[in-house]
Amino acid sequence: MHRELRLAMRNFATGVCIASTFRDGPDGREHDAVTVNSLLSLSLQPPLVALSLHRDSGFLRDLLASGVWSVSILDIGADDVARTFARGRAERAHAIDTLSTSVGTRTGTLVVDAPSWMECELRRHIEVGDHVMVVGEVVAVGLQERRPPLIFLHGRYQTLGEVR
């Protein structure tokens, strides 16, 4: 069933995002960022979104400890960024220094230069199978004119072309 479900879900197009959070350690704040395609808009009043992260993820542990995260929705020019942040933690840590980011004013998480982004405060988390869904209240939003969105479909990063 696992293999069949994976193949079936390859036919479902999703957006591609970079989620970021941090952990405060003895040497100061350490940021982390990961590629996600599980962003879900839950509610406008109150403004709630969710992410689904593997339960064994170090990123998830940091997010639950900090209680904050940001998510940046990528455009077609960012497929290399998406690939980089889909790698292991050590490679992501090295790549963070080269990523075009700013520090979110409400959460202190890194916001990636992207068409849109949201800063979120954790409201709850729910264990679901081998993942944990984190639900956050959106406390800040940014928008800018950009190229069409990056999507993930059939196991590859793609674009929709011209968006109307």
UniProtKB/TrEMBL annotation:
<keyword id="KW-0560">Oxidoreductase</keyword>
<protein>
    <submittedName>
        <fullName>Flavin reductase (DIM6/NTAB) family NADH-FMN oxidoreductase RutF</fullName>
    </submittedName>
</protein>
<dbReference type="GO" id="GO:0010181">
    <property type="term" value="F:FMN binding"/>
</dbReference>
<feature type="domain" description="Flavin reductase like">
    <location>
        <begin position="9"/>
        <end position="159"/>
    </location>
</feature>
<dbReference type="Pfam" id="PF01613">
    <property type="entry name" value="Flavin_Reduct"/>
</dbReference>
<dbReference type="InterPro" id="IPR002563">
    <property type="entry name" value="Flavin_Rdtase-like_dom"/>
</dbReference>
<dbReference type="InterPro" id="IPR050268">
    <property type="entry name" value="NADH-dep_flavin_reductase"/>
</dbReference>
<dbReference type="GO" id="GO:0042602">
    <property type="term" value="F:riboflavin reductase (NADPH) activity"/>
</dbReference>
<dbReference type="InterPro" id="IPR012349">
    <property type="entry name" value="Split_barrel_FMN-bd"/>
</dbReference>
